[in-house]
Amino acid sequence: MVRLAPIPAGLPTTVPFVGPETLERQAGRPFAARLGANENGFGPSPRAVSAMQAAVAEVWKYADPTSFDLTAALAAHHGVRPENIMVGEGIDGLLGLLVRLTVAPGDVVVTSDGAYPTFNFHVAGFGGVLDKVPYRDDAEDPQALAERARRTGARLVYLANPDNPMGSWQDGAAIAAMLDALPPDSLLVLDEAYAEFAPAEAIPAISADDPRVIRMRTFSKAYGMAGARVGYAIGHPDLIAAFDRVRNHFGMNRISQIGALAALQDQDWLAQGVAQVAAARDRIAAIGARNQLTALPSATNFVALDTHRDGAFARRLVDALAGQGVFVRMPGVAPLNRCIRISCGPDAELDILEQALPRALATL
Question: N or C: which end of the chain has fewer CB within 10 A?
């Protein structure tokens, strides 16, 4: 018999997201439009592509375990010190390390019911106790999160801004005020994966040296490098330094480090991509409206379309779209699950969506 440690032995076999490749294998054919994983179909900067191609010949080398060049560039970009930055294998990897660092078995962690499930996966994996509050008006509720943290003495409080899966966002001032409402031993985990798409007022003015918060950013979304797995945390130097106690020091990919550095240096391409995403959001909203689906306001690279029905109907619609060759996803918790979530993509893929959506609805 396989012998597992007590915590994982008591966990279900859980996969937070079933990948589109798995769904394609099950269906026996590829998707014609890949619009479900919040990837950036407009792609990375050509400068990043060229830098990564040039780096391939030296892939025999390990990556710099300190990510020195990328860390220095990110610090300059954000106007902080290198000691405030930790580069890691995407936000997902950094969340796992943070939970390992801060959550002991039995510690309470507060999040929203329906928020990013990979964070919950890590909390359960290290023996934390999840305590969830509902969304309010299809958005996370900072006041309710803070109140629950005070009531439970939560070690971590998770908030994504802008939010996945709904695309909503909070005013930065409300998030800054939330810090004063947390109990002394709580740490706010502020997931800003979609920050580059957000309006300026959504980004809170919080010092990188504030020990009450750690902020997570990524190259997966606006920079179009999801497959490279490059994320970074911004936080107090003592907390950032603690990552060295548990992280995989050779976990970063050398080619990805070089590509991310080149992408960061091409802010013109980033601005162009953000504009393309905004145009795609408008088009998805228009496609939805023509099919009696209502787009929720979004500050991300996806749009939640309200079906005005229930989760069972939305699930049938997701499956029907898959049958038409279009990969989309949906929130997993009621009442959010009345929506389907469609990632922004190039016109060619949205053309396919435009034709497939009415056909899928007709099958229902």
Answer: N
Token code pair at residue 296? 């929720």
Angle 26-29-35 from CA coordinates, rounded to 5°: 90
Q: Among 273, 299, 270, 274, which Cα is nearest to 77's?
A: 270
Alpha-carbon distance of 59 to 316, in angstroms, equals 45
Phi, psi of 18 (to 5 degrees): -85, 120
DSSP secondary structure letters along 326-339: EE-B--SSTTGGGE
With a CB cutoff of 8 Å and minimum separation 6, the contacts of 67 are 87, 252, 257
Phi-psi map region of 269: left, alpha, beta (phi>0 left; psi -120 to 50 alpha): alpha
pLDDT digits (tens, 9 = 90+) for 161-178: 999 999 999 999 999 999
Three-state DSSP class for 50?
helix
Q: Read off the pLDDT of residues 269-282 as tens digits, 9 standing for 90 and up.
A: 999 999 999 999 99
Structure tokens at 32: 């014609």
Pairing of strands 302-306, 339-343: antiparallel
Instruction: Decide: 151 and 118 in contact? Cβ < 8 Å.
Output: no
**Taking the model in full, what pTM does it have?**
0.96
